[in-house]
Write a structure and sequence with these properties.
Elements lengths: L3 E11 L2 H5 L19 E10 L2 E7 L9 E6 L8 H10 L1 H14 L7 E5 L7 E6 L10 H18 L4 E4 L11 H18 L5 E6 L2 H15 L1
């Protein structure tokens, strides 16, 4: 099995939406980007290698982080909502919902663990992968399998679209109530397992909202590294 190697933590600067769309969409973290705008954000991040791929944790705004595909924490109705879902629709504009309006009559509700793909509108990406996470009950009603399936399905759909870089939120950890540490363990292990056998995914980045989420994911990842 290819090794998972820690490269340490570093400071990362990412650009505003307009700047990011005009820059390299793959956004190599080891370079020091220029400060194009007063709205530029500076966050802490951790980077690891998984075989030939990179796994990055970042505390920041997923709507301003460039990637080929952005994973959205969607609901089963695919009708938009709060949290990450609402932020992605606000930043991406109405074209994303128009595409979902065309998809919805064909599939009905999207079950937990599954996902659909649309364009990314005004976001710094080509695609949005709308992954539906489980509502947490007690962890004994299929929630771990459904959560892992969200990430596997998102990675598979990204690969089918030719995407090599992805950004993920912490799916189901908001109003769906999934305990942060449990969700981090499932999501990170699932992504690591996928990257170990699919080097065509060059970069998977978890963009986490708030210090608590970032700290939890970083601790869990370091425990997985051993």
């Amino acid at each position: 099995m290819p090794p998972l190697t820690a490269l340490g933590t570093y400071r990362i600067e990412y650009l505003t939406l307009a700047d990011a769309r005009g820059s390299d969409a793959r956004f190599h973290e080891q370079q020091i980007p220029r400060a194009h705008s007063a709205r530029m954000s500076v966050e802490m991040a951790a980077e690891f290698t998984v075989g030939g791929s990179k796994l990055v944790l970042l505390e920041g705004d997923i709507t301003k982080t460039p990637a080929d595909a952005i994973v959205n924490a969607a609901n089963s109705s695919l009708a938009g909502g709060g949290g990450v879902d609402g932020a992605i629709h606000r930043a991406g504009g109405p074209s994303i919902m128009r595409e979902l309006d065309e998809i919805r009559p064909k599939i009905g509700r999207c079950p937990a663990g599954d996902a659909v793909v649309t364009g990314a509108g005004k976001l710094p990406a080509k695609y949005v992968i709308h992954a539906v996470g489980p509502v947490y009950r007690d962890g004994k009603h299929g929630e771990p399998e459904q959560l892992a399936s969200c990430y596997r399905t998102a990675l598979r759909l990204a690969r089918e679209k030719g995407a090599t870089t992805l950004t993920f939120p912490a799916i189901s950890t908001g109003v769906y109530g999934y305990p942060m540490a449990d969700a981090a363990c499932i999501s990170l292990q699932t992504v690591i397992d996928y990257l170990q056998t699919h080097p065509e995914i060059e970069l998977a980045r978890f963009v986490l909202f708030g210090k608590r989420a970032y700290d939890t994911f970083e601790q869990v990842l370091r425990e997985l590294v051993g």
